[in-house]
Amino acid sequence: MDALTKVPEITFGFWIIKIAATTLGETGGDTVTMTLHWGYLLGTALFFTILLALVVAQIVARKFHPSLYWATIIASTTAGTTMADFADRSLGVGYAGGSTLLFLCLMAVLGLWYWSLGSISVATVSTPKVEAFYWAAITFSQTLGTALGDWFAANGAGYAGGALIFGAALAAIAAAYFWTDFSRVALFWAAFILTRPLGATVGDFLDKPVSKGGLHLSRPIASAALAIFIVACIVFIPQRAGRHPGDARAKALR
After folding, report:
1. 3-class SS at 213?
2. DSSP secondary structure string, 145-167?
């Protein structure tokens, strides 16, 4: 009988919660760094500490816990927001430089993961070693997504335009999943990365000033509304652990 993994089965509901979590990561990170005036360095320190604690709890846990898993995802996307903003703006790396550096870091993690274990499929996330690779890849992908979203928005696309671009890219990935035999593992990681800039641009569209192309909504209120929506999704959308190994690799993205 297949063993259960420590991550959820990849379903349509998974992607709904993931996009909402990435949007919350943007508004939540901006709430701390901008609205509360913590700044990018202190905000990064806060959220990265929370992320490390949750990753340890996730690895120590003996089975899949939906609330713990999604709390860790939200922590990774919020930390990704502040880390990307710190690198892009405080360190002066710039959006292009930050995106390139983070992409190389993500490829390095995925490469080491594949070299060490022979697969980067989420269906294999069932041991502490694989979980460590998984959460490192998740964190870099979330940070990369923030930098990509800001880069597109700052170079003429705007927040709404950036959301449309990344939404169209995700639609293309979905089409490739349903109508081609392209690697399911590659499609998963491509979709996982692109949901982050989608969430980043949507989050910025919600809370940035009207003069900058946003709706100027309250960051704390938007964050609270997104958090309530995510909790409702976790409660009402079935959350099942994925399976490993065997057929799980072929079904990992269903």
Report:
1. coil
2. HHHHHHHHIIIIIHHHHHHHHHH
CA distance 229 to 224: 9
Q: How far apart are CA 122 and CA 5, in angstroms?
A: 8
Give the distance from CA 218 to its chain's centroid. Answer: 22
Locus of tokens 């901008």? 34
- Cα separation, 25 vs 97, in Å, equals 22
Q: Read out DSSP for 109-142?
A: HHHHHHHHHS---GGG--SHHHHHHHHHHHHHHH
- Using CA atoms, how far residue 40 sits from 35, 52, 249, in Å, is 12, 18, 39
Residue 248 banded pLDDT, cuts 50, 70, 90:
very low
Q: What is the mean pLDDT of residues 156-164?
A: 80
pLDDT in tens, 92-109: 777 788 788 889 999 999
4 SS3 class: strand
Q: Could you read off the pLDDT of 223-245 as tens digits, one per residue?
A: 999 999 999 999 999 888 877 55
- At residue 215, the pLDDT reads 85
